[in-house]
Amino acid sequence: IKTGYANIDNFSGGLTRGEITIIGGRPGHGKTTVMINMLANVLEQGHKAIFFSRELPNSELLKKIICLESQQLSYGMVRKNIFSEQELEFFNSAVEFIKKKYSKDKFLMFDNVKDFSAASSEVKKFKPDIIFDDYIQLISCDSREDQRRLQIEKLVNDYKWLAKDTEAVVVLASQLNRFVERAGARGKAFMPQLSDLAESGAIEQVAENVFFSYYDYKVQGEKGKGKNVITICAGKVRYGDSGIVDLAYDGDKCKIHNSIG
Hints:
Helices cover 41% and strands 19% of the residues. A 9-stranded mixed sheet has the order 3-2-4-5-1-6-7-8-9, sandwiched between helices. It is built from 10 helices and 9 strands. It is globular.
């Protein structure tokens, strides 16, 4: 299944059924935006998708999707519910478009599923081509393991078996360790790496692909790559190539473009 971004698909050839892809990033570095752009692209291709939003309520995720699909509306303005007459027309038009593209036979979204077993039940009923979960550290675990590292290891392994059983692609968002955030607070450009994943060993060994979303502007401001560039780093690609690619980014419209050019 293609992500819709040729420069990302070049690393691994796309996303493969039965496999896990991790998207790691610190808060504010665009990992949820990366996921909803992939979601929009796979629905455009005719695939079925399910999205578990553990951090944001469905209402906030839907606001991002409206801005993404309208390509006219500001996320900040939508959050404040401030519209001009023309913007209200854009909003209504986007809603009608979303009703068709994100119809319930093609797409389901949940913000009230706390644990893996409940998520697994919804997946088996809906039978999606691709599963998005944002993000794994917020999944309640029924494991008897006391250490969170071992709980995460079990969750990732359970998702791996679910991917294989349902022949679906699984895309999981993951937080990074606090060290990366501290480096950013000092104004230092710090490209994420595999060891920065929270509970990294448990996640890294199971996932086929690990991508990092890195927004240099949040760290360096105008001294760096600028406000409209987001960097995707392929830290691990089991059946392909690792590397780094810059994509054009319009954060206020929740849109990532295929290239900067």
